[in-house]
Amino acid sequence: MKKLLLLLVGGLLSAQTSELIGNNWYISKMVTSSGQTTNTPLIDNGVPATTITSAGGLSYVINSKYYNTATMLFSIVPGSNNLMKTAQSFTSLFYNGGNAGPVRNYDQKNIDIYVNGAYASMYNYQITTNGNAKTLVITDPSGNKIYYNNSANLSTQDVKAVKKTFKAYPNPVKEVLTIENIERNLPLKIYDLSGKLVFETKTNDRKISIDTNSLQKGQYILIVENYQSFPFTKE
Fold first, then answer.
1. At the N or C end, where does the chain have fewer CB atoms within 10 A?
2. Residue 138 and residue 54 share a domain
3. What is the CATH number of the domain that holds 30?
4. What positions does the domain Secretion system C-terminal sorting occupy (predicted)?
């Protein structure tokens, strides 16, 4: 009887987690406990995939990605759709690209949902399916909800809005940061993570070099007009 019970519990866990870890998820909107809805703002690099993976045993980890990544380690309560939080972390890059205000606010909400819950607090998840389209809803202990789709679902307008890219290296950089495949005569700026402008110039060729010796060790954001932003680390 005990062995049968263990098999049943294992089967329930397998069914619960297969859809969670078998999909890439993309943030689509957030709904506060008071019912206020915020759709995902357009971001320079496009919305990256959120992943949920096994961390061994009955533990799993979600990397909820927008500009920054909120990471939460959790276990699934057997026979339920409840997630018990066991650890957390998040990245703290500063976004200074297009649509900066809405992107920063939304990014902070993503972090808050996973960081503000206390250790061993309970989250809930629900997955709904409509054909090949799936929606994952995770509810935090305060009743705030974060919605994910299993596809990026970029509209034609969104695709047109995605900016061009350039090549920059090395990253991390010790002395000289080289930038290639860039247009001439464009404003180029570097910001630290507090949003302070620490360097600015104009591009004068398709390939340029920037002396970073005046920068303190840390993380920075390189912004070139009409291009996707580039985060880098100064060693």
1. N
2. yes
3. 2.40.128.270
4. 169-228
Residue 54 is predicted with a pLDDT of 82
Give the SS3 label for residue 21: helix
Question: Would residue 22 count as lying in a domain?
Answer: yes
**Whole-number Å distance between alpha carbons of 229 and 225:** 9
For the chain, how many structural domains are there in total?
2
177 & 127 share domain:
no
Residue 180 has pLDDT above 90, yes or no: yes
Q: What are phi and psi of 14, to 5 degrees?
A: -65, -45
Picking from 112, 142, 144, the residue whose alpha carbon sits closest to that of residue 37 is 144
Among 149, 184, 219, where does a domain finish?
Answer: 149
Place of tokens 């919305």: 47
The single-letter code of the amino acid at 131 is G
Q: Give the burial string for 45-60 (b: 16+ CB within 10 Å, else e).
A: eebbebbbeeeeeeeb
What residues have CB less than 8 Å from 159, skipping those under 6 apart? none
